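Consider the tokenized backbone below.
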């Protein structure tokens, strides 16, 4: 296995209905356990609110049991959290400090930094785990891009949208 085939990226919506969170978290953990059993070691998350945060939290939780796994944050820019609620910034900072590595695709916010972050995640991965319930937006774009690159995409939280 090369580094790319040992790497999984995450993509998902910032908004997750509260009623779906427990089941989504369980499905995510079960999916990651299967990937770990298959030899996936590196997990790339984009640091956004919602699914990215849940994915990073789950990797950090599983890292206690599976010391070989690594969380890599691929972030659009240092000021990603501008405008976030203080409790969300605090959790972001906790995840950032516990991550094994952080990569910024831009020194400052610009119109394309989120897009570059998403492409970077996919370009360095062999698998994608997605929470995608809509056929439009950044998550749908990232899923289509992953599929175009031949990555298997594991859809969580119900059926995949028509992409």
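A designed sequence for it:
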């Amino acid at each position: 296995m090369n580094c790319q085939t040992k790497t999984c990226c995450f993509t998902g919506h910032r908004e997750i209905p509260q009623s779906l969170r427990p089941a989504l978290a369980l499905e995510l953990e079960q999916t990651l356990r299967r990937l770990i059993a298959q030899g996936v070691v590196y997990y790339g998350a984009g640091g956004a609110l919602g699914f990215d945060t849940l994915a990073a939290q789950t990797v950090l939780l599983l890292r206690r049991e599976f010391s070989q796994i690594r969380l890599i944050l691929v972030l659009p820019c240092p000021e990603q959290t501008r405008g976030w609620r203080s409790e969300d910034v605090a959790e972001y900072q906790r995840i950032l400090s516990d991550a094994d590595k952080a990569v910024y695709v831009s020194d400052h916010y610009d119109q394309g930094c989120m897009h570059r972050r998403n492409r970077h995640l996919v370009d360095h991965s062999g698998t994608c785990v997605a929470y995608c319930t809509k056929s439009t937006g950044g998550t749908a774009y990232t899923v289509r891009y992953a599929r175009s690159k031949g990555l298997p995409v594991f859809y969580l939280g119900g059926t995949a949208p028509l992409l």
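The helical segments are 21-37, 51-63, 86-98, 113-123, 138-148.
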